[in-house]
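Q: Structure tokens for this one, please.
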Amino acid sequence: MTTQTAQTLSTALDGVAAVGPLLAGVVVVALLIGMVQLGIRKRRRRSRPPRPDEQPQRPDDVPRDGGRSH
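A: Here is the predicted structure, written as tokens:
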């Protein structure tokens, strides 16, 4: 290998080493954005929580202290 070829190869590898972490960061950000969008879609498909008037009610004849009498 000549000195010029080695220097060119070294310069190319330095460029790859500088761009590699940047590309990895872009990939991580893209994955995070995709996961958030997936979560939003899943949440929209769920049924809404019941309103207060739709909540189950306790029967009036059951003691509220767990059924124990002292």
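A few notes: The helical segments are 3-45. The radius of gyration is 31 Å.
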